[in-house]
Here is the input.
Amino acid sequence: MIRKGKELGVAVPVLATCRVTQVYDVGACVYFYLGFNANGVADALHVYDEIETAARDEIIACGGSISHHHGIGKLRKHWLPSTVGNVGISVLKSIKNELDPRNIFASNNLIDSNNSKL
Here is the structure.
């Protein structure tokens, strides 16, 4: 996150920190936080998005998950296929089609559908 911020022209180093919130016998849930000084940054939202994307890409590359108990949602669904694979996506689509054929609940939160009502 710090390196990506520097690449994107953030003058003061990005603040990157984390905390462990749950510990299990198979791993832990680690929350990462970032902040940066947006002075002189033309599009702070774009810079934030680029830093977060780079961080999530690295987490996935290292075998991590993009979500714990908060779900995936529209903002993180880009990483879902690399997390659950093609079989996982097929299973999710099948469940969604069976339980919510009109795509009313959580429309397009996990996977895009052709029959979205939104």
